[in-house]
Amino acid sequence: MAGSTVPSKVQESPEGDDVARRLLGSAAQLAYDPATEVDWDTPLDKDFHGASPEWCSLYGTAYWGELTEAQRKELTRQEAASVASTGIWFEMILQQMVLRDIYMKNPAGAEFQWALTEIAEECRHSIMFARGAQKLGAPHYRPRRAVMELGRAFKTLAFGEAAYAAILVAEEVLDVMQRDWMRDERVVPFVRTINNIHVVEESRHMKFARDETLKRLEGAGWARRQINAFVVAVASYFIVTSMVNPKVYRRAGLDRKRALAAAKANEHHKSMMRSSCSGLMDFLASARLLTKPALAFYKRANLI
Ligand SMILES: [Fe+2]
Ligand SMILES: [Fe+2]
């Protein structure tokens, strides 16, 4: 575990925000160094899955029924690696957004210091995901070019509630899957450790993102709420639809065209996504970010 104490001056800082101060305390008590916590040395045991099979994009389809156990395991390993790669992509976006957000803030304040602590955690996560995907035998998966360019625009321009609500969506969607995978004995042990580390540290980030979203929305007028609700929904759509890269199927030795069609029509997977996002949707509704146009995108992404 990598932890340190919070200097008492930070806690007394007049600019210190309560939530940020508490999160700094939590990070000082419980943080991990994936470089030493994760078992990177033991060779990959192909008897294990990379993710809980129930989360696989093909689980429950006729095609899934035809696959051998070895093919299923290879597919969940590739999908887990793809989710990790999408995680890296989004963590790069959010690190830049948070860094831009604190540019003018007082370095003595708890909010400034918490933000840098969160960035440090994300930085360690991205390296951990990169090594994890590598160990799972995956190539460099990344969202398609147009989505990468949209992400480039988003990380450069998004601010306030649009930035923090999008961060929250990405973190929540990952959180629910990873909670299942970290407890699942069918999942390869080093991936379970990675998920455990991520779940623990992301619970702080989600708390902060929720708090910031509500704070930034205070006093927001109708038009601003409409625009940002829409931007967040579109961002969520691209994040969620980029989780499983279409290349995973061929990599696992499957017929790409058939697998893509089966995944697209997979009602089991859609209902997993919907039920796991119910808490998030409740939050967005309470923040009045579930406007009609936004709702259409969440439905398209099968989040509601
Ligand atoms: Fe993370
Ligand atoms: Fe995070």
TrEMBL record:
- List, alphabetically, the InterPro entries matched: AurF/CmlI, Ferritin-like_SF, RNR-like
Q: Name one Pfam family in it.
A: AurF
The molecular function terms of the Gene Ontology recorded here are: oxidoreductase activity
**Out of the domains of life, which is the source?**
Bacteria
The entry's protein name is: Diiron oxygenase
Native source species = Streptomyces violaceoruber
